[in-house]
Each structure stands twice: as structure tokens, then as C-alpha cells.
Design brief:
Oligomer: single chain
CATH class of the largest domain: Mainly Beta
Pfam family, one: Hexapep
CATH architecture of the largest domain: 3 Solenoid
InterPro entries: AcTrfase_PglD-like (IPR020019), Hexapep (IPR001451), Hexapep_transf_CS (IPR018357), PglD_N (IPR041561), Trans_hexapeptide_repeat (IPR050179), Trimer_LpxA-like_sf (IPR011004)
Protein name: Acetyltransferase
Number of domains: 2
Family: Belongs to the transferase hexapeptide repeat family.
Shape: globular
Helix content: 10-25%
Number of strands: 24
Strand order of the largest sheet: 6-9-12-15-18-21-23-24
Number of helices: 2
Bound molecules: acetyl coenzyme *A
Largest sheet: 8 strands, mixed
CATH superfamily of the largest domain: Hexapeptide repeat proteins
GO molecular function: acyltransferase activity
Distance between the termini: 47 Å
Length: about 200
């Protein structure tokens, strides 16, 4: 089992895998100055590794970069689920996705591939979360919400039931979303509205 990315996000994923009892052989990072993370070796990735890798998670928080790396690598992706996350037996989680400690995912919710469901987030019943989404710490998604590919929901945001959030949108930290969000929008505040700069 290997991770791609040797940042702070990788530290959290490493500890999930340690808790799961999954043996991690090492990490990859594009920065040639990085040779280890804790006791784990960090290598540069080349296609020679493809046949040696039986499980991989991409430990990169940026949704665009995570998609780029996922599309480049020809390896099997696995999921990482913290033992102290609460997952309904009727929820589905795609490969490449990580679910951090304290998360709750309720019935009939579907989470796509290469998502991050971060510490203490709550994703309630009947939600549909597409690939490469990051749901940050302490986010509350009520029931029946859809979140499009690549969207980042900032820490502590709250989204009202049944809301549709578009693709590659950004919801600022602490935002309260009460209306549907178009693709690529940046929404902040309470009630949430399009971000403007002075
Ligand atoms: C484990 C982990 O760490 S997971 C990582 C979780 N990360 C997050 O939750 C970060 C979420 N990111 C944010 O909230 C950011 O502020 C963003 C993406 C919404 C905006 O970032 P930037 O583009 O750098 O915007 P910037 O900081 O220049 O702010 C622009 C304006 O919007 C306002 N603004 C920015 N973010 C917010 C917010 N979350 N809520 C309300 N207003 C905001 C600013 O006050 C500023 O207003 P002003 O021009 O009147 O002073």
C-alpha cells in the first residue's frame, strides 16, 4: 500500500491506515527534497512502479491536482476509512476516497471516487457526492444534497436539505448555503452569496 503525496494531509491518512492495520510500504512525492515522512520512505514516482503497487491512495488536498494524478496513474486505488467514522451499511463510498475520524455518513448516501470527507464532517441521508469533492472538517450536509465533481466545501459550512451544489465550486469556511450553487461559483457568508472583493 502506498500514498501519493507526503504533506500534512498524508499524515492524517497514514494514521487512518495504521488504525485499520493496513501496512504502508512508502509514499511518493514530486518534491526531490523530501526523502521520508516519519519512518516511511518517500520516492519519486515512475512507471516502473506500476506493476509493484497493489493499493494506492492519493494524499493531496487540492481537488484539481488529485484528479490529474488519479488520471495519470495506472494502479488500483483503495479507500481509507477511519475506524471511528460512522458509516451506514446503506451508504456507498468509492475507491480512492478517504473518510476521517468522527465523520458520519447516513443511509443511501453515495460518495464518489477520490473524495475527502474530513474530520467530524456529517453527510446525512440521500446525499450524492461526485468524484474529487473535499468536504472539510465539521461541515454539516443535511439530507438529499447533491455536490458536483471537484467542489470544495470549507470548514464548518452548513448546507440546507435538498440543495444542489454544482461542479468545481468553492464554499467558504463557515458559510451557510440556503440556495442552489452554480458550477464554479465561490460562495461565502450567512446566508451564503457570491464572494466579492473590496
Ligand atoms: C484539515 C484542513 O485544513 S482542510 C482545509 C479546509 N479549508 C478551508 O475550509 C478553507 C476554505 N476557504 C475559504 O473560506 C477562503 O476564504 C475562500 C476560498 C472562500 C476565499 O479565499 P480567497 O480567494 O483567498 O479570498 P480572500 O481571503 O482574498 O477574501 C476575499 C473576500 O471574501 C471574504 N471572505 C473570504 N472567505 C470568507 C468566508 N469563508 N466567509 C466570509 N467571507 C469570506 C474576505 O473577507 C474578503 O472580503 P473583503 O474583500 O471585503 O475584505
Amino acid at each position: 500500500m502506498y500514498l501519493y503525496g507526503a504533506s500534512g494531509h498524508a499524515k492524517v491518512i497514514l494514521e487512518i491506515l495504521e488504525e485499520q492495520g493496513t501496512k504502508v510500504a512508502g509514499l511518493f512525492d514530486d518534491n526531490p527534497a523530501v526523502h521520508s515522512l516519519w519512518e516511511y520512505p518517500v520516492n519519486r514516482y515512475t512507471s516502473d512502479w506500476n506493476s509493484k503497487i497493489t493499493g494506492m491512495l492519493i494524499a493531496l488536498g487540492n481537488n484539481h491536482i488529485r484528479r490529474k494524478i488519479a488520471e495519470q496513474l495506472d494502479v488500483p486505488f483503495v479507500k481509507g476509512i477511519h475506524p471511528k467514522a460512522i458509516l451506514s451499511g446503506r451508504a456507498k463510498v468509492g475507491n480512492g476516497t478517504v473518510v476521517m475520524g468522527g465523520v458520519t455518513i447516513n443511509a443511501d448516501t453515495v460518495i464518489g471516487r477520490h473524495c475527502i470527507i474530513n474530520t467530524n464532517a456529517s453527510v446525512d441521508h440521500d446525499c450524492m457526492i461526485e468524484d474529487y469533492v473535499h468536504i472539510s472538517p465539521n461541515v454539516a450536509l443535511c439530507g438529499g444534497i447533491s455536490v458536483g465533481e471537484g467542489t470544495h466545501i470549507g470548514a464548518g459550512a452548513v448546507i440546507k436539505p435538498g440543495i444542489l451544489v454544482g461542479k468545481w465550486a468553492t464554499i467558504g469556511a463557515g458559510t451557510v448555503v440556503i440556495r442552489n450553487v452554480p458550477d464554479h461559483a465561490v460562495i461565502v457568508g450567512n446566508p451564503g452569496s457570491t464572494m466579492t472583493r473590496k
